[in-house]
Amino acid sequence: MPRDPLIGLVGKPSSGKSTTLNRFTTIDPQRAIGYLQISCACARHGVSDRCKPNYGACVQGKRSVPIELLDVAGLVPGAHEGKGLGNKFLDDLRHADALVHVVDVSGTTDAEGKATRGYDPSQDIVWLRSEIVRWIEGNLMEKWGSIKRRHVAIKANPVDTLQNQFSGYGSTSQTVARTLDHLKLKEPLEHWSPETISSVVNAFTDEKFPTVFALNKIDHPDADKNISRIAKMQDPQSIVLCSAISEVFLRKLAKQGFVRYVEGSEFVDTREDLLEMGEADGGGLKELDEKLKTRIENLKDMVLYRFGSTGVVQVLSRAAELLGLVPVFPVRNIHGFGSGAGSNFVFRDCVLVKKGTTVRDCARKVMGDAPLAYVEGAEGVRVSEDEIVEVGKNDVLSFKVGR
Ligand SMILES: Nc1nc2c(ncn2[C@@H]2O[C@H](COP(=O)(O)OP(=O)(O)OP(=O)(O)O)[C@@H](O)[C@H]2O)c(=O)[nH]1
Ligand SMILES: [Mg+2]
């Protein structure tokens, strides 16, 4: 059955993975539920006032949909040879659909995460990627002789042969097919050179593990020069600037009643600010001591005003963008968008699927193995199970069970 998308947080020790994860609802030390902001189908159907998700929330058509995050710790140079937690992290990685590489751009930790100064974090992007590639390549090369022989003996096609090897990384035949399409290789698999195999593994890694770079610790004075270095090497679309510690700090202060903070925004108000703006009683906020006041001022200057937010919320939406996640809304009744059971609420459920997912896959994800009679889409029109779901197309579906 198709699984829920999973986003893996990777990065060297002390880069800020756990701090980033902490911003979300943690299930255990390694896992958390993040909330992805999407536009809900209720908005385009004008029923936002009756939209009440079973999980997450929906405010005026802006819906937060739960998505699972995994902290993949223990990654150091040489991990593919068993250094650090070695292959343990690589095994965790298999389950991830996209990666968030948390990079410490303060330059105060070396490749092993030990305290230093002036370290160039662009190196981390290079070696971490190479650890993943070398791990996959190593596993493949170990068996290449017999893979090749079998391939020739049974006259297999390259997609099937490679998928046999890559399924353990959570790959599908489509992933492998896309990888090979990009490369446009001329030679048959049995004649691939080590360089060709290397380029196949590289392309597969891109395809299987699309990566967002969360440049973390932007509150640090040395961050600027490191950020511009990395910005020159990477696609700007794949970069998000963030300060996980600032997000954690602001949320803590908000919870304790010291500030009013709109999550993911640049807006932080203290009691003084609110009084100044004419809000009686300062919004009921507590008085801040000088030390806290200075910390908040610094945080505004170093992070919020310069970058527009702490960036942590954006990390998740960028990863979802990269994955091309499509929110699909299964409903019992395609005309009223309800869930049946006498309730007046609409769009109770929403599942996130990867781009290219078919109506059939969505049905299996929602209904399991229940026999499917037919599927209704918008306005009650029948939809073929082979159709692809997209935002705004085949994304509100009613699955009819029966034979
Ligand atoms: N200045 C600054 N420090 C941060 C930030 N985020 C995390 N830190 C600090 O960096 C240190 C390491 O953070 P963790 O979140 O534990 O790092 P980790 O990636 O989980 O590390 P491991 O679990 O060892 O792999 C802690 O002392 C954090 O307080 C940030 O945005 N700015
Ligand atoms: Mg940690």
TrEMBL record:
Stretches assigned to the OBG-type G domain: 1-262
PANTHER family for the chain: OBG GTPASE FAMILY, OBG-TYPE G DOMAIN-CONTAINING PROTEIN
PROSITE patterns in the cross-refs: G_OBG
Pfam families associated with the record: MMR_HSR1 (PF01926), YGR210-like_G4 (PF08438)
Organism superkingdom: Eukaryota
Record-given protein name: OBG-type G domain-containing protein
Swiss-Prot/TrEMBL keywords: GTP-binding, Nucleotide-binding
Gene Ontology terms, MF aspect: ATP hydrolysis activity; GTP binding
An example Gene Ontology CC term for this record: cytoplasm
InterPro entries: Beta-grasp_dom_sf (IPR012675), G_OBG (IPR031167), GTP-bd (IPR006073), P-loop_NTPase (IPR027417), YGR210-like_G4 (IPR013646)
